[in-house]
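Q: What does the assembled structure look like for these inputs?
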Amino acid sequence: MKEVPVKVEHNNQWIVTKLSVGDDRIVFPAPVSKEILFKSVMDLAEKKNVLIITVKTDTESVYKILSVEKVLQILKKLILASCNAYRLMAYFMSPAIRGGVLIKDAQWEKGSIVVVRSGIWFTSATKQICVPVKDVAAIELTKRDVQGKPTDVVRIDHVETGEVASSLVLCPLSTLQVLYNYLKDTTKSMDMKGTELDGIDQQVAMLVYSGMDSHAIENMLNIPHKQLDAIYDKILKLSLAEVVTIRREIQLTTKGVRYITDATKTQTN
Amino acid sequence: MGKILIVDDTLFMRTLLKNILFSGGHTIVGEAGDGEEAVAKYKELKPDLVTMDVVMPKMNGIESLKAIKALDPAARVIMCTAVGQEQMVKLAIKTGARGYIVKPFQAPKVLEEVKNVLAS
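A:
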């Protein structure tokens, strides 16, 4: 086993330790004193430089490891290769589209797709990309031109730091269908059945998606502020959006009017 | 900053693109609602760039792109289409499109693509 320097969260404190890493397990020395078999890992997530590992034996435990990128890469590679997850070998392109614009130099990469409880991991010799399930906006079985032929692919739309990006997965159709069904099931909580918006509401949502602000939306759709406000309420109630800014409209008081009048006089004199 | 012709059969998409491009400092020199009108407007207005919808009545975006390229081989055209029609990408690029955007799109990325194509 190799030893790597890490910080591990123990009793709500970060402690410096040396983690022993083997082919099928990691071992935390005292005071954590715990051995984790990769096959017992149910979930793997990453936030900045912290790896969050959920392990299920008799009970479920969560371990947080903080380390440099190189160490985390090795850990992720080992865990994703053996953890308890839906896994398949495939070609992927992530991201292929960002903000609706095709990325021209995007390439198909040979690797694997690992679906854990909280995310979809794309891993290859050089990449480890995680799309959290909560950020998945859509999953679609679609066609893509590959080497001159229209080919079935699974397209995963996800929100990445406020931008909508799309990743593509390519593998034999039967596997693709299984992956599609599995991902659809995993992200079922995001389904919108029964909560669809009507025509103008959809247009407003589309304009928000495109980055338009309230003022631009009112002008483009020629609707009064009150109507837009009501549509925003509907969209917010469906948890399709969140409030980021509350803009105020103000009216000058008598003092303000006097100030402006005086200021204008000074400028024109 | 460029002079842009927007081609789309829906007023909503034309208005959205117009707003996005205007906010990026571009000048919208004209709009067209189908491929035929796009070719006529291209001849008349000589824009620096065209955003071209793919699925349109009368003449579709690919045919219109071909006609514009026949008039001006250096024409800069960005194709614009809905989700699920990405297989048109290769055909459009082969025909001479400089870029491709997929609806729905986000304003900053559209402006970035327009900037790149104008600089090419």
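The two ends of chain B are 13 Å apart (CA to CA).
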